[in-house]
Amino acid sequence: MSFYFRNRCPFSAGITVLLFPEWVSGMNRCMQILNKSEIVSNSEFSSIIFEFNNDCKILVDTSLRILSYVNQLSSTGKNVTLDFKEEEDHTFSYLNRIGFFDFLDNNIVVKPDRPAISGADLYRGENQRVFEITKIIPSLKRNEIPGNLTDKLLENIDNFTGIKAFEIATFTILGELIDNIHIHSESQLDGYVAMQVYKKKGTVKVSVIDSGMGLLSTLRPALEANYPQYANCSDPELIIKVFSEGLSRNGIEKGNGLKSCAFHALKFDAELDLLLPKTQFHLTPISNIGYNHAAKAIVEDSKVKIAGTQITFVFKLDNT
Predict the structure, then answer these.
(1) 56 with 19: CB under 8 angstroms?
(2) Which domain holds residue 37?
(3) Which of 25, 136, 258, 292 could, after both became Cys, cross-link 191 (CB 3.0–4.6 A)?
(4) What backbone torsions phi and psi does residue 162 show, to the nearest 5 degrees?
(5) How far apart are CA 38 and CA 187, in angstroms?
(6) In this predicted model, what pLDDT tens digit does every residue of 98-137 receive, in sequence order?
(7) Is the same domain home to 274 and 307?
(8) What is the pLDDT, as a whole number, of residue 2?
(9) 126 strand-pairing partners
(10) Residue 315 carries which DSSP code?
(11) What pTM, to 2 d.p., does this model score?
(12) 58 by DSSP, 3-state: which?
């Protein structure tokens, strides 16, 4: 990935973030780019321009991360611009197709212009490999979302004898992740969910994101009272405990949602990407017995603080 940052004003009033061509994945390239510009989140910069050059290709989890991040920046009074150079380029068309612009803060400037017609509204449901970005309002439950997304995912699976178990697992995972936004987000900003199948890779990504305080930020203050034995655990160790033992800021037996997600995901050998305000994890299952940070987790500290929690499950279609 090629990228660089430049000041547009000698008095540090603004900064430009350039994205050059190549696939940008949610847990690697996107955060590498943002980490290179810790000043992006610095209050001295009032104006931030993201330039998407020459068909910079973005994966579905990254689209949610960028959407959430720029909306957060805009909500704090930053002047944010997304510059696509040409309306017909791949990135602009893709983001329009999955509904990115439908949920972009109205104060954010889009160049050359916002799409006149939403591609998501125009073609919604016509592509079995895509579940368009859907808004999750923390204060308003929409019980149909997990079922609709599960149905879309099942359209991509043929001749699978365990399809009922996969349906239950997927519905449970999505229901728990979305419920977490309603219960724990504590943010006025919306969360989002989306899914895409990547046939060439034989994988499907299901990603859910919010703009809350972040999983560890809410859990750590409660450790002394509820789990004193884990008070000195490192972040990776604590994350593993969350998914294996169901730790919760609300005490024992209150955090079984994420434990249940991991239990069902492990049945189908799903990988798990977790992005928190200043830390990111990639967890790979060990022989269907659990997620083991010591052997398989990749942990990277992020300099850029992006509020919230993003959880992405990566299923291999040949394992379903």
Answers:
(1) yes
(2) 1-124
(3) 136
(4) -100, 30
(5) 23
(6) 999 999 999 999 999 999 999 999 998 889 999 999 999 8
(7) yes
(8) 34
(9) none
(10) E
(11) 0.85
(12) strand
